[in-house]
Specification:
Structural class: mainly alpha
Distance between the termini: 125 Å
Low-confidence stretches: none
Shape: flat
Order of helices and strands: HHHHHHHHHHHHHHHHHH
């Protein structure tokens, strides 16, 4: 029985301790909320509102002041007492260990405090905005008035610079005066925020006026002075060039300049209406167009110099290339007796002559147009350049073909010399095999030697053909060269293998009596060697020696190579 009593007492004590801990946490939270309430309650909001009294307490200012004061009084007189009641309830719930109700009450207090803080922040923000607006208005309105006076002086002092836009600019400036008066009236009535809107609007309009005062004189200078001067220079340049027999109708310069003069009047009217966004980009385009016409006139001058410098000499150039091509055509007929040419190659001079005849007719027509002086020199220059380029291309092609014809004899002699070299290499290969101390020559090597000799015969036969086909000769020569060089390499390799086999067998003979496997491998190697199967003999001999000493094979190969080098 006592045991159960002790357990109950312990549980009750644990619950009591837990409740005390939770109550302490709630008391701390209630204390924090009470502290926040006191901070809001004692915030010097009325001292802040007193700053408004330095302004004109009329109209909007007076309305705002009353609104702020009433909103804060509502916080102090209604919301703060409500929070006090909630704090009292929370403390009572905690004392009675009603922690759930205490938690809900603390959340309600948190929400009420947030509402009070939101009101405080809004009042301070709106107050700062009002006071800041008054200060900014006072500074900026003086700057705007000073700018207005400066702009007015500029317009009066430089009326001629603004031309037809003068009246519109003066009207824009006149619009500032009633707005200044409206600003003063709003400020006097305490409507500082509305006055702020007037200041912002005036700032925007001032920026526009500033831009107009800078851009209008510049654009008028372009329209009234620079572009008309350029038009005059272009007309004079056109007249002088036409007097010098230049053909310029294709440029349509007169039509363009007449249209441009009419357009300038329209642009001037747009400036009078201050429609600068439509004028400025067009002025840039007009200047680019004028520069383009200057370049076209200069191009005609340069083209005329080119035509005068090159046209007359083109006749002799065409004749020289035609004479060269005819000589090459005659040479082809002579060369074809000794050498065979492909049909396409043989036709190169004839095709060139036909092309030259076409170019000659084009040149005659061009020369006529030059003397008639009824064509633009730029088009004549372009035509002359095309004819020149095509003639140079024909001349280059004929020169290459002529050199190829001359090289046929050189190529033939080179082929005959290389044939002799290949004959000697084949003879050297046969002598090499004959001098070598080998049991015999395998059938494969005999076939290679026979094939190489046949390749030599084919080359000899192709060199005896009339007319000679040098391309075919070179093809046969290449095949013969590959065959003979490969045969020579295989012969050297075979002789080297024979020497290595002999050395390997000599080395292995010392171990035949003591190693049956070595003896059997050497027997197979000797049998293959006698049958001229040298690759098989080398493999069997290497197997035998590898059983005894794997490194011996490499040493024997090195000794054989040294022996061959000393021969």
């Amino acid at each position: 029985m006592i045991k159960y009593i002790i357990i109950v007492v312990v549980v009750l004590l644990a619950l009591l301790m837990a409740g005390l801990v939770v109550r302490r946490k709630h008391n701390a939270e209630i204390g924090r909320l009470d502290k926040e309430k006191l901070q809001i309650q004692h915030y010097p909001i009325f001292e802040e509102l007193a700053k408004v009294k330095a302004l004109n307490m009329n109209g909007q200012t007076e309305e705002l002041f009353e609104n702020w004061r009433n909103r804060w009084l509502d916080v102090v007189d209604k919301q703060i007492p409500k929070i006090d009641e909630l704090l009292f309830d929370a403390e009572e719930f905690v004392d009675r260990f009603k922690f759930n109700k205490a938690t809900h009450t603390e959340r309600d207090i948190e929400q009420e405090l947030a509402k009070c803080e939101q009101v405080r922040v809004q009042i301070i923000t709106e107050l700062d905005e009002l006071i800041g607006s008054e200060e900014k208005n006072r500074i900026e309105i003086e700057q705007l008035k000073e700018y207005y006076r400066s702009a007015r002086k500029t317009i009066l002092a430089h009326q001629h610079s603004f031309g037809p836009a003068l009246e519109a600019l003066e009207k824009k400036l006149e619009q500032f005066i009633p707005k200044f008066e409206e600003f003063d009236e709003l400020t006097k009535d305490g409507n500082y925020l509305q006055a702020r809107e007037i200041v912002l609007q005036l700032n925007s309009e001032a920026q526009e006026i500033f831009s107009l005062l800078n851009d209008v004189p510049t654009l008028l200078t372009e329209i009234q002075t620079k572009i008309p001067t350029a038009i005059h220079e272009l007309r004079n340049g056109q007249r002088e060039m036409e007097e010098q027999k230049y053909y310029l109708r294709h440029l349509e310069l007169t039509e363009y300049l007449n249209g441009l003069e009419n357009e300038l009047e329209m642009l001037k009217a747009a400036i009078a209406e201050l429609n600068l966004p439509a004028v400025s980009p067009r002025i840039e385009t007009i200047n680019d167009e004028i520069d383009h016409f200057y370049n076209l006139l200069e191009k005609e001058v340069m083209a005329r110099k080119y035509v005068e410098r090159n046209c007359s000499g083109m006749y002799s150039v065409i004749n020289d290339v035609m004479r060269l091509t005819k000589d090459i055509n005659d040479e082809v007929a002579y060369v074809q007796h000794s050498y065979r040419l492909q049909d396409r190659e043989a036709e190169i001079p004839k095709v060139g002559l036909k092309h030259l005849e076409v170019l000659q007719r084009r040149y005659e027509l061009l020369s006529t147009r030059v003397h008639e002086e009824k064509s633009a020199y730029s088009s004549l220059q372009e035509e002359l350049k095309e004819i020149t380029d095509e003639i140079e291309q024909i001349a280059e092609e004929q020169e290459k073909f002529s050199n190829k014809l001359k090289n046929l004899r050189i190529d033939e002699n080179k082929a005959r010399a290389e044939l002799e070299t290949l004959k000697r290499l084949l003879q050297d290969t046969e002598r090499l095999l004959g001098r070598a101390n080998i049991p015999g020559i395998p059938e494969e090597m005999d076939a290679r030697l026979e094939e190489a000799a046949e390749q030599i015969f084919v080359v000899v036969q192709s060199l005896q053909e009339v007319p000679l086909n040098i391309i075919q000769v070179n093809q046969h020569l290449l095949s013969a060269k590959q065959s003979i060089e490969e045969t020579h390499e295989k012969a050297q390799e075979m002789i080297e293998n024979v020497l290595i086999i002999e050395r390997l067998i000599q080395f292995g003979n010392r171990y035949r009596a003591t190693n049956r496997q070595v003896h059997e491998n050497l027997l197979e190697a000797e049998d293959a060697f006698k049958k001229f199967r040298y690759i098989k003999a080398l493999e069997d001999a290497a197997k035998a020696v590898e059983i005894i000493d794997p490194n011996a094979i490499k040493r024997i190969e090195e000794l054989v190579q040294e022996q061959l080098l000393t021969k």
